[in-house]
Amino acid sequence: MKRHRELTFKLALMCVGMFGFGFALVPLYDVFCEITGLGGRTAGEAQQVTENVDYDRTVRVEFVGSLASGAPWEFRPTQSHMIVHPGKLYETHYFARNLTGRPLVGQATPSVSPGIAAKHFKKVHCFCFTQQEFEPHEGREMQVLFMVDPDLPEHIDTVTLGYTFFALDQRS
Amino acid sequence: MSTTAIDVHAGHHHPKGVWPWIMRWVTTTNHKDIGTLYLTFSLVMLFVGGALAWVIRAELWEPGMQFVQPHVFNQMTTVHALVMVFAAIMPAFAGFANWMIPMLIGAPDMALPRLNNWSFWLLPFATGLLILTFFLPGGAPAAGWTMYPPLVLQQGASLPFSIFAVHLLGLSSIMASINIIVTIMNMRAPGMSLMKMPMFCWTWLITAYLIIIAMPVLAGAVTMLLTDQFFGTSFFSAAGGGDPVMYQHIFWFFGHPEVYIIILPAFGIISQVIPAFSRKPLFGYAAMVYATAAIAFLSLIVWAHHMFTVGMPLGGQLFFMLSTMLIAIPTGVKVFNWTATMWRGSLTFETPMLFALGFLFMFTIGGFSGLMLAIAPADFQYHDSYFVVAHFHYVLVPGALFGAFAGAYYWLPKWTGVMYDEKLGRWHFWLSTIFVNLTFFPQHFLGLAGMPRRIPDYAVQFADFNMMSSIGAFGFGAAQLLFVWIVIKAVRGKGEKAADKPWEGAEGLEWTVPSPAPHHTFDTPPVIK
Q1: Chain segment B166-210, per-residue pLDDT in tens
Q2: Minimum distance, in Å, between the CA of residue B192 and any CA atom of chain A
Q3: Among partner residues B182, B217, B233, which is closest to A18 by beta-carbon distance?
Q4: Which end of chain B has fewer CB atoms at under 10 Å, N or C?
Q5: Which of B334, B414, B428, B444 is an active site residue?
Q6: Residue B254: closest C-alpha in chain A
Q7: Is the pTM here over 0.80, yes or no?
Q8: Concatenated DSSP letters of A45-90
């Protein structure tokens, strides 16, 4: 019986350990994504860039805007795509409108696809860095200043920049 | 176990009255009783899951909407999968483990009999919780059995129910696994070293470890879904810095070992049946053990081949593609060893052997389509198409389920004391084989032609193959009623009296005890030479 109890205890411990491992995957995943830039995560703050334009190469940058479900906003890019040269600074805008009769605060989360391009997509200025306050029914354009790094792998000719716009009370 | 425990049960074998009869089964700690409960439960659930599949195939009989709304259709596919995986196939093999492992290793019972009782009795309640969701506002879970967020978080009242059901089902299988490992490690008869164990014990030992490694991770993943929905965490919500793709990684870290949790016990049964009807010992026993362990290890590092299309870097795709293909090597070792076991054997084709051979052929078909899916660039075409549906049904139905049938026919004389109806058994095999191929083979073509899975309606060019598939599904379901009839006949003692060793070529301790096996066997351990 003692042998049974010992082994049972060890196996139960293994289960608890694996349950913990499932949760440990969460920070591990974050670290992994941060190091590799996978998962399409871009820097959450302004990045320093120097212009070093590669006029021989063009990259198509597409813009996508989506709303968290049920958010009372209008949210869209003002242009669907741009053809850009790597190493040159460009400007584009997203438009957002508060559809309610009360002031709202929102913020956008950026994502770059394909994931491998994320760390080569530099944002010098972005409305996603800060919270955006809107008066009732206010609509306005918000600026993004970006540069595609010349180091972007050769085989990538299209990069998609997507924002999801959240009402801030949806954030935890 | 102590002698007092045996005395307590001695008077309970033939209780009088309904209530004592119910309580005998509710409170039983006997491994054979619990094995019977597991097997009966899983057979009932096979028909519950099958009924849901019939709704799916009825709706897909022809293009257009026939019987159910799309939302109901999605509930059917989701609950069909959850019931079949967690309430039919896994408990079936747990039933085999409970009945046979103590008898195969010469132990009087499982090591932890009360835990055993609990791990079974969690099952009906967990499954009840899951099926109850059909009656909730918004219906049963409908986001697919993989429960991907954010879709799964929009499904309404059924979410916490299905999550707690998964918790309980996981708890049940974890406890059964702990019990199986402790039994095998501590209770083998004197002289039975690990490398003398029957292959079925080996595959279950390794399966039990896989369950202990994988199941808690699933429990963690669904717990994160629960807290995301109700307690304001953001594990999978991009709004709070989480990532829905991370759920897929965590889920498939469980999900891929899970497919081997389902198939390895079937490998074990096939490794018992083929030698018995070839009248030769299993070819390459040690290689079989190592191959099983290798499959189990590899299953833990290949999970992302289920998600090639999420946007992985080339290095990741290459790693998961090649490691997945590597599994074909130990699996090939097993298939060739089974074939070599039959080489120059004196084969006879009783029903267990027929199912084992059916397994060998059709599981291999499923294995090959799995190899096709492992090719990352090709997977972009196959992903989420009916080709995937065809692939995993080939490994689950003529794979795992046929393995369970082979085992059921093989050991039924030992369980009931009578020979099952051999003629009906062969009918059952041939009808099942014809209909299972009619059901799932055309789905390969549908998938390659571009039909996506999990849809209630489809373009007209898919009509013919879908109708064939539906005919096959109705026929396959009906053929299983034959199995129920064969089992009922045998349980009621209708049939030829079975000898202690009804199969001429069978080897193993289970054939040294009388048929039917008495309530308590190996109270004094046998000696293995």
Answers
A1: 999 999 999 999 999 999 999 999 999 999 999 999 999 999 999
A2: 18
A3: B217
A4: C
A5: B334
A6: A22
A7: yes
A8: S---------TT--EEEEEEEEE-TT--EEEEESSSEEEE-TT-EE
